[in-house]
Design brief:
heterodimer; A: mainly alpha; 3 strands; flat; B: 8-stranded antiparallel β-sheet; binds zinc ion
Amino acid sequence: MLCNECGKNEASVHAVTIINGVRNEMHLCPECASKHPELSRRFESLAAMTSRPRSLFRNLLNFGFDTDPFEAMENILSCPTCGETLDDIRKTGLFGCSDCYDTFSDQIIPVLEKTQGSSTHKEGEVQKENGQNIGDAVKEEKKPDRLTELQEALKKAISEEAFEKAAEIRDEIKKIKGE
Amino acid sequence: MIMLDWLKDNALSGDIVVATKVNLMRNAEKTPFSHKIKEEEIAELIKRKATECFTGDGRDLRYSEINDMTWQQKNRLVEGQIIPRELCSKENTALIYSEDYSISVALLGEDHYNIQYIKAGFDPEECFSICRNMASLLNGSVKFAYSDRFGYLTASPMNVGTGMKVSVLMHLKGLAASNSMRNVEVSLTQSGFSIRNFYSDESKPYGDLYIVSNTRSLGVTEQDILENVRGTVGRLITQEKETRERLYKDNTLSIEDRVYRAYGILKNSRVIGSREAIQDLSMLGLGKSLGIIDCCSQSMIFRLMISVSSAMMAEIKGTEIERNVSRAEMIRNVLK
Ligand SMILES: [Zn+2]
Ligand SMILES: [Zn+2]
């Protein structure tokens, strides 16, 4: 989707504002979004929060609603990897995946500054052992299945004289075996 | 008698700190956090990687699915500080544990892996060193989610960075009796710690057991956290000791009276509820530390304080009254 304002860049900031009960959707590129001060997060005062870390985090991400009903808005930015929105995170107090840290870094950095007194890791112990990526491991386990599947498809393609397709399948088989 | 095996006596058992535990939270990289995993294969593989690592030949750790446990077993693990409550309400969760539960790894809870070591007495360094070795072992087969900016990436941003939590279970009878807990809480909060009650009943605390934990996990190294814990808990221990001595000096007769009354009830009752027993044991612990009474070791008092709760005793068959009878008997048998 293209940005509503400049019409040139890809829109990555999606916001819904409700002003005097009128709902208005905005889809903006980061550049245009930065020109809208009302889209920046507002945080409640620390004093109003409970001491439970989970709800503290939730409260810190909760902005707007009670303080100014005319400008209440709901941010629908979502994580490209896991699909979690800021609203989901506010409800659970949990991120959906490790990429959420990048997706929501603008929102999380001030929260971390407040709750942890820092937003940057100080390197101490590092586990240096090089384990496997779980996604790769799942693929690895599926490999024999996928190979049989492709070999079947290859036979079928050849018998149907669909040679172009057969070549494609042969390349894929080579790729899997070669890995 | 049901006793908590991880609460074994050791050289570091003291008058005030009941136990120390360290948790290290880790997640597999480029994989959704537990609550967002949709593919069964990924969930199974996350568990299997840990099982292969920790329960392989020569290592005597066990594996159990949380779903296969009875509610009594689950409650006992929650109250015994072995698993967080939320592990029980989720699908697919599992636990790897040593026979005495001192070592455990909760699987697919809030984070994929929550490595824990718990022991009696005050020893954050040893607890950490065991957890670190476990994490290294696991890291040999699973790549962890880590970024240079944020460190170890956890489902809750409250644990990001080191992914490390140190919790110290303390008996703060003196500070509680002198109404100082509010001040203690304020000063702990300022130094980056939280404190909560171990036992509470309709939100009213009892038993004077508290859990003190670090709240900062980011922007500090593991060694910084250990030093902060040692410093903060050390000061709290001193404060508690001084308060106990002052209380005793100012109210000698009434404290001795209350200690002996508590002893009288515990030593003689035939039926006793968990709350009453725990409160009397707390008074007995104070008496023992002040040298007023010598009825059993301090660590035995602590073990009783945790073992006689309703959750711990729920596995004993029978009615509540029958359990109250067993509880009274269990305590009478231990006290001299
Ligand atoms: Zn634009
Ligand atoms: Zn995400």
